[in-house]
């Protein structure tokens, strides 16, 4: 599974961080950081994060192995 965040769309609102805190977080400057290749066990929370993003900035490729 690969994740991509379109930073031209992302507004750092953080819904993805609430939905999948093991994958998405904010750095000390409050910029979004994320694991671009999370383990398959995180597929459900990644899907919730993608669905939660109000600007549809999160793209997920591939599924659980
Ligand atoms: S929910 Fe979407 S807009 Fe908000 S921080 Fe995450 S990727 Fe960015």
UniProtKB/TrEMBL annotation:
Keywords: 3Fe-4S, Electron transport, Iron, Iron-sulfur, Metal-binding, Transport. Transmembrane segments: none annotated. Residues 1-29 form the 4Fe-4S ferredoxin-type domain. The keyword Electron transport applies. The keyword Nuclease does not apply. Its cofactor is [3Fe-4S] cluster. It comes from the Bacteria. Gene3D superfamilies: 3.30.70.20. InterPro entries: 3Fe4S_ferredoxin (IPR001080), 4Fe4S_Fe-S-bd (IPR017896), Fe-S_cluster_ET (IPR051269). Ferredoxins are iron-sulfur proteins that transfer electrons in a wide variety of metabolic reactions. PANTHER family: FERREDOXIN. This is Ferredoxin.
């Amino acid at each position: 599974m690969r994740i991509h965040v379109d930073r031209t769309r992302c507004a750092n609102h953080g819904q993805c961080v609430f939905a999948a805190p093991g994958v998405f977080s904010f750095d000390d400057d409050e910029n979004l950081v994320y694991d671009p290749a999370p383990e398959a066990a995180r597929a459900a929370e990644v899907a919730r994060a993608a669905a939660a993003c109000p600007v549809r900035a999160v793209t997920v490729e591939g599924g659980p192995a």
